[in-house]
């Protein structure tokens, strides 16, 4: 199915909506507990459980409207389902917090494997959206692999040493903003490698 363009604001709402709703939901029920099927769950576990179907719904809508999901979105959704399920099954928030480490660590590892093979797997994913010379892709891939590794380590430090509320705030806002700013600065620095799209 060919990809279709949609309103960029709607696309942003579908991509950012679930994390923001998780954040708002957590703040509203963080001090509450819920008895479900004879098991008591705290507010964080319930918010995490609700986040999974919200994310899947938003991705289903995005796929329906555009006819396409990126490989990164698909992998992220799979990991959210797995670790969200483990969080609820074991009634342990550790799994959901570790999910961020696994996601960032996996991306760093995949990019690193490509680099060891002399390839930019990032170009394979994003070249159609941002045509760039091979040298530019290799530089961006090396830097982004390092950035993902740093974020994975940072997440481990945050969830192991800070409160759950602090982790939720950092996970929802600080990590995404840091990644967006990093990518923006890299695109500015690599302008000379950008190419005009064909046609």
From TrEMBL:
Protein's name according to its UniProt entry: Inner membrane-spanning protein YciB
Role summary: Plays a role in cell envelope biogenesis, maintenance of cell envelope integrity and membrane homeostasis.
Xref: InterPro entries: YciB (IPR006008)
Domain of life per record: Bacteria
Family, similarity comment: Belongs to the YciB family.
Transmembrane portions of the chain: 41-63, 69-90, 102-124, 144-161, 173-194
HAMAP family in the record: YciB
Keyword annotations of the record: Cell inner membrane, Cell membrane, Membrane, Transmembrane, Transmembrane helix
Membrane topology recorded in Swiss-Prot or TrEMBL: Multi-pass membrane protein
Annotated source species: Tropicimonas omnivorans
Chief localisation class: membrane
Compartment annotation: Cell inner membrane
